[in-house]
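FAQ: What does a multi-protein file look like?

Like this. Sequence, then tokens, then the next protein.
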Amino acid sequence: MNPAPPAIPVTIDELLNSREERALLQRELLASYSGCALVSFMVNFPGPFKAGEDAVFIHKEGIRALEELLEPIPSPHSEQRELATGREYFRLTRSEPAEIKRICCRLEEGHPLGRLFDIDVIGKDGVPISRTELGLEPRGCLLCGENPTVCRRRGAHTIEELTGRIAEMVRRYREKALYQGG
């Protein structure tokens, strides 16, 4: 993978266009690989800088951990996209979508950077599998644990507070990896 492109701010329109393009690619991948479920991975990174150094590092670590967990599961195709709106990773699997979602949720909950991972599993029918379908609680706000949508709507936290927390999580993760010889 290439180094991170320079961090440039992205607009809401660019994010919305990227979301539409991602949804189109997801539909195309599912149509091209009949009978497969799709894992779609991005990083939850607030603010206009989606491809900065921390976001790229989190994405690389997330893919490494995800591929390690999914390695024994047959996969006919995977690909990555490096965009100013954030890096994207897609992996098709020939496994039960609900089981793949359980594995991904364990990664989101158990990895030191997992709270920053945004892993969607889309079933063979094109419908995403939700955490609540599996009896799991929705994830809370990075800072206070409350519903993140409510926090966003009421402006409970600044972008600086959120990105500061993320930078601290990345720093601690890197220090631990260095300490452990990783």
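And here is the next protein:
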Amino acid sequence: MDSLDLQVLQQARDWFVQGDKVWLVTVIETWGSAPRPPGALLALRGDGLVVGSVSGGCVEDDLIDRVRHGERVDTPALIAYGITKEEAARFGLPCGGNLRLLQEPLKRAGWIDDVLTRTARHELVARRLVLATGEVTVEAASRSEKFEFDGQQLRALFGPRWRLLIVGAGQLSRVLAGMALALDFEVVCCDPREEYHLTWDVPGTTFSKAMPDDLVLELQLDPHCAVVALTHDPKLDDMVLLEALKSPAFYIGALGSRGNTAKRKERLALFDLSPAEIGRLHGPIGLDLGSKTPAEIAVSILAEIVAVKNGVALTQKKEGSAVPQGSGVCTSG
């Protein structure tokens, strides 16, 4: 899911409470270069007003036209676009992409309130829809799950599927945290230094004064977690790396020059880390964007994290940087 889908649910709930007729449209399946992934949401009001997106725009226009001409489903129904080349051209689907949607009438809003409340607490939840009855339930979900549709039931995830642990509460960390929240990461910042944690002021994040290595063990990092060490203090950065590099976290990076990265690896080799584990470290952290300011550096770090998450090769790195073998190939789903 992404934050846009939560905005769609909130607007749909508001329209429904006001007495409007509302339909939810969910992307079920795509082929080719469809622009929105399975699970993406659109809400459609009875007068044709929409929020959210399921395509580049032309499919939305057709959905609006259907509602305005009286095609208003009373039970969940499937809609397919782009099955032929002519339809793909008509609806603006790129590269012959095909799109299958599920349209459903919103008949009660209580489950939306449940989703919004629980995701505001950084919980990951799933909405289950039974097509035959239109019944909706909300249940806990795990990070390893994905959007599912078997023809009878839909199960869509809402909430932070990905987690970012930031070690260090300086200016760069605050900017990075805000950007990561916008990308739907659950953000945890850790800094035991009093002069730093007293000034942490990023709403929507979780802050910990624990020692970084202890927090890594407590969080039980999984393949949907990323860790960045940004303190410039080897004692703190090395501590978190000693534990994080042994975890299944999909990305682990540390701030510092190529020279500092080499020295850091020498220090890590003195402990119970294998060469392969030490080789997982991304350093210098971030893509080479010519970054100078904290905001630009944050962009470069988050761009690298997203690239690894999405399985994209890290070609935009400074020469001589430590790039883990196979980096950019994310198998965590």
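Q: Is there any per-entry metadata?
A: Some entries carry free-text notes. For the entry above: The longest strand covers residues 22-31.
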